[in-house]
Amino acid sequence: MIIFITGATSGFGFAMATRFLNHGHQVIATGRRGENLAELKIKFPKNLHTIKLDIRNREEVKKTIAHLPEDFKKIDVLINNAGLALGINAAQKASLDDWEVMVDTNINGILNCTHYILPGMVERNFGHIVNLGSIAGEFPYPGGNVYGATKAFAHQFTLNLKADLLGTKVRVTSIEPGMCQTEFSEVRFRGDKEKADSVYKGMTALTADDIAETIDWVISRPAHININVISLMPTQQAFGAFTTSRNN
Ligand code: NDP
Ligand code: 8X3
User: Fold this and answer.
1) Structural domain includes residue 238
2) E-strand spans in the chain?
3) Ligand 2 atom at minimum distance from 185 CA
4) How far is the CA of 4 from the centre of ligand 1 (A)?
5) Does residue 148's CB lie within 6 angstroms of at least one atom of ligand 1?
6) Would 7 be classed as within a structural domain?
7) How many angstroms separate the alpha carbon of residue 181 from the centre of ligand 2?
8) At 13, which CATH number?
9) Which range of residues forms the domain containing residue 131?
10) N or C: which end of the chain has fewer CB within 10 A?
11) Which-ligand-closest: CA of 148?
12) Number of independent structural domains in the chain
């Protein structure tokens, strides 16, 4: 299959690119860090097309899809993986710039890629779109304000796509992980590695390979099965109780 992955320069995206290439698929790996893509290309000179791409930029996405090499044009699977959380301040203290970056990446990025790739899938009557949601899209937590809301978007957009695609053989899935140790927390805490590491201290978090394996399973189901949503989290993570603010 031809698999287009956003955010293939680290974490889940990098693990997926590696796994799918090892399994003989063709991969289009994208992300902003060209040096990481170049590293991947050295490891996998064949079956891999890399593109430096900022998914927030609609024109860039449009041109990228329009100018794919002939043997990579018929995308079978789009994995809308690229995304980020910035900060963990309460809404009243959060940065509007950070909010905008999260909305632009986690929402508009998905829309840009889906808009330019989905019509080809429908035309060929074959395809699969996998969106990266999060447990943060279902369960609120302090400081999750806009990040969680963008992931709730990913969840509902996936289900609404499913409604629109009835009658075609195009499938859609939302993958909704909990804590997974990647560069995610380093990005969230702006390079503060110590703070990022403390998020996963004393517990076994999910790994990027766990997510790649899950998505591999999702896209390799027989054609008559659509996995709508998968929510997964570490055994050592769970939900919190409701809390109360009391007088005195
Ligand atoms: P990483 O930070 O390791 O990877 C994020 C990827 O997104 C990078 O490859 C980065 O590439 C890419 N990216 C960020 N902004 C842009 C942009 N504007 N244009 C193109 N690519 C971009 O995190 P994860 O692998 O953990 O995260 C992958 C997805 O999974 C995200 O959507 C995240 O929200 C979600 N998720 C993560 C969880 C976790 O605990 N780790 C849990 C649940 C969901 P580059 O910087 O090179 O552009
Ligand atoms: C990231 C998962 O639990 O860190 O989407 O918010 S969590």
Assistant:
1) no
2) 2-5, 26-31, 48-52, 77-80, 127-132, 170-177, 229-232
3) 4
4) 15
5) no
6) yes
7) 10
8) 3.40.50.720
9) 2-232
10) C
11) 2
12) 1
Q: How far apart, in whole angstroms, are the C-alpha atoms of residue 108 and residue 125?
A: 25
Question: What's the gap in Å between 91 CA and the centre of ligand 2?
Answer: 17
Position 6 in a domain: yes
Residue 239 falls inside a structural domain: no
| pLDDT per position as a tens digit, 37-92 | 999 999 999 999 999 999 999 999 999 999 999 999 999 999 999 999 999 999 99
Tokens of 168: 């075609």
114 to 61, 124, 125: CA distances (angstroms): 10, 15, 15
- Taking the CA of 55 as reference, the closest ligand is 1
Residue bearing the CA closest to ligand 2, atom 6: 136
Predicted TM-score (pTM) above 0.85: yes
Q: Is the CB of 105 within 6 Å of ligand 1?
A: yes
Torsion sign over Cα 176, 114, 101, 212: positive
